[in-house]
Amino acid sequence: MWFKSLRDMGILGMNARNIEFIGRYNQRKLYPLVDDKLKTKKLAQRFDIPAPKLHFVIREQHRLRNAENLFRKLDGFAIKPAKGSGGKGILVIKTQEQGRFVTTSGVRLGLTDIKRHISNILAGLYSLAGTPDVAIVEELVEFSDMFTGFSHQGVPDIRIIVFQGYPVMAMLRLATQRSDGKANLHQGAIGVGLDIATGTSLDAVLFSLPLEVHPDTGRILSEIDIPGWQEILYLAARCHDMTGLGYIGTDIVLDSDNRPLLLELNARPGLSIQVANGQGLLPRLRHIEKLKRKHDAAQERVNYVLTTFGATASL
Question: Residue ranges of the ATP-grasp domain (predicted)?
Fold first, then answer.
């Protein structure tokens, strides 16, 4: 009975995702373009896709001897493992006060803590295969005022599933106190389904349970309306052209000027976006597969999605 219900809703399961979409539409030789955040960032620069500014990269342990000079000149910044996944190993520093580095959750760290964290990154503690990695240090994005009260400390991000260049489903991920300021659903962030045609909120979930207000701020989640939505979809659609991958998750943030920035890409995006949207991916994916003529230009693909997959549309 429950299986029939999921099937009727068009829910995409993990096996079908892996075999019929990731396996079929993502060439394995292209994975490094998204599994390595440094390669993604350099590729985005070549394709003129906006992303947070790269301050510097630390590749060897001996470079940490110069950590004082490297970090004291920065105010807010983010340290990321190039080959990390699921948000692991990311350290976000909001500011420096009295010689201490203050995280978004208010924890105060010393330079020794920063060096230890980077040393762990280089040793491969957070990399996908446990192999040696490099540490990326990039600017801290000051997020849009429209998210005030909707996220606890951390920067909200927008996950969009892009299939064969068409943005097919989207959600907003909002940090909570429980998620320690991180927009990670598995750590307790909120997932808000977004109407792919308008960028307005649909359903919201916390650990897969329905939610109406942010547990820490009390903001009503149904009031969310993302500005510049078509520009965001256009950026997401271009990521297909940039990587050549047929099935990807694009993670996008809005800066203080409401300008969309590419945060990272994922060749194996999770399936919880369906729970946040209250509907399955399969009908939209099958619809794209059946198109007799695909649209070449990213803007054409966005225009098609706006009229085909909105909350009021029926497939």
Answer: 41-292
Please give the Cα distance from 159 to 251 (Å, whole number). 5
Give the integer Cα–Cα distance in Å for 123 and 58: 12
Between CA 260 and CA 133 the distance in angstroms is 28
pLDDT band at 205 (very low <50, low <70, confident <90, very high): very high
Half-sphere exposure at residue 22, Cβ-oriented, CA atoms within 13 angstroms: 19
The SS3 of residue 249 is: strand
Alpha-carbon gap, residue 262 to 265, rounded angstroms = 8
Distance CA 122, CA 191 (A): 31
Sheet with 260-266: strands ordered across: 209-210, 201-206, 190-194, 166-174, 157-163, 247-254, 260-266
Secondary element (H or E) of residue 136 = strand 135-139
- The answer to whether 7 touches 149, Cβ cutoff 8 Å, is no
Q: In what order do the strands lie in the sheet with 108-109?
A: 54-58, 135-139, 77-81, 91-97, 100-103, 108-109
What are the boundaries of each domain within the chain? Answer: 14-38+145-309, 53-139
Q: What are phi and psi of 225, to 5 degrees?
A: -145, 105
The CATH class, in words, for 14-38+145-309 is alpha beta
Q: How many CB atoms lie under 10 A from the CB of residue 119?
A: 14
CB of 288 closer than 8 Å to CB of 12: no
pLDDT of 51 higher than 80: yes
Residues 104/92, Cβ–Cβ less than 8 Å: yes
4 has pLDDT over 50: no
Is this model's pTM higher than 0.70 or not? yes
